[in-house]
Amino acid sequence: MTYCVGILLEQGLVLASDTRTNAGVDQVAIAPKMHVFEQPGERLIVLLTAGNLAITQSVVNLLREQLNGPEQGSHLHNVQSMFEAASVVGAAMRSVHARDGEALKEHGIDFSASILVAGQIKGEKPRLFNVYAAGNFIEATADTPYLQIGETKYGKPIIDRVVKYQTEMMDAVKCVLISFDSTIRSNISVAMPIDLMLYRTHSLHGNCRQRLTEQDPYYVSIRKGWGEGLKAVFSSLPNPDWSAS
Amino acid sequence: MTYCVGILLEQGLVLASDTRTNAGVDQVAIAPKMHVFEQPGERLIVLLTAGNLAITQSVVNLLREQLNGPEQGSHLHNVQSMFEAASVVGAAMRSVHARDGEALKEHGIDFSASILVAGQIKGEKPRLFNVYAAGNFIEATADTPYLQIGETKYGKPIIDRVVKYQTEMMDAVKCVLISFDSTIRSNISVAMPIDLMLYRTHSLHGNCRQRLTEQDPYYVSIRKGWGEGLKAVFSSLPNPDWSAS
């Protein structure tokens, strides 16, 4: 499993992915799921991947190879909009499906993959897409300014309660870390470290990228403060006065 | 979808189910998912059902008809242990599978059903089981004293944080209602009213059974207090001091 989330804010983008990959419970490893395509001053495009690792790594490799391919082809360094970028990622997904889909089917393996495509290209605002395994995609809007892939449920309620398009970036970061904490506690196939990227609107380069380990002092303080805070709120609420005797 | 949860406490059992049933988004109705088999002073057995309504209603009907069947047969009013009760429910599940399984398969419909079987029979402690579609089952233990069926993820973190086997019954009730609130907010196919049953160990009758509507004053106060409390805890936690400029 995997957990990735992208939040589209007026101030920019907050992007995060876990790093655990597993094939069965007895084959567990760390693999990055955040892939950055950057031309400072021109564009920053970030991919967050979930699903079958062989598929998503193939897609990312195809996209990297396209950058050095024939000049007339569309790729992530020459597309003129994030919509086009999502189309290019979708097309790469379809190429991998054309190559591997039938063989996977014969082995009873789902063609499961989804990729968040987030970023900004000069001349546009920051945008955020979710590209599905079929290569089609949806875009986040100011009404619901986030997209999740992978193990999405445990970490969703806190985002729903807190995040809006106008939310301050550092509040959104705090919320994302709480969302990861809830997910990591509940699903053993999602795990630290967390790759995190903050992007400020119109900066056109990756502003703050870091990998948070379990020992990161800020993550530790959020984890502890949130857990203790929840218990305190729980205790402060009244019990029902129904008799059950 | 559905959400049902059963908690096994030293003090007894807390059992709850939502009441929404739907076949597609354009056919939504209320159906009880809590079914009580009671012989006051002798036994209380409660079934909470999730999955295909035609299957679970058939199982419950079979179990009711067995009560008036030939005397030598096992049924929920003559079994000597909750383990036997779970076996009887599992056998009823298998009967329905034998009758309907093949036809459902032909129509591409999963045989999806699960049933929590909770209660106490004189001479035993209260026990709690989860009977699967295949008729096999697991039992809750003091280490993880709860079982959920249906839409289980949204409402699980708060139970994990708060409930232990030694938890006071009314604290567990409060926790169950918060768990339902989180689930109902996130999944439109889980909805009020909530059927709730509290059972005190060794009382051998259903002690407090009620249906909570959206207007129930206690539920409203919990819902409001929890939402406001979460936001207050969130605000009180520090933001990261990373620059993202």
Automatic annotation (TrEMBL), chains A, B:
GO terms for molecular function: peptidase activity. The keyword Hydrolase applies. This is Proteasome-type protease. The lineage of its organism: Bacteria, Pseudomonadati, Pseudomonadota, Betaproteobacteria, Nitrosomonadales. GO terms for cellular component: proteasome complex. Keywords: Hydrolase, Protease, Proteasome. It comes from the Bacteria. One of its GO terms (biological process) is proteolysis.
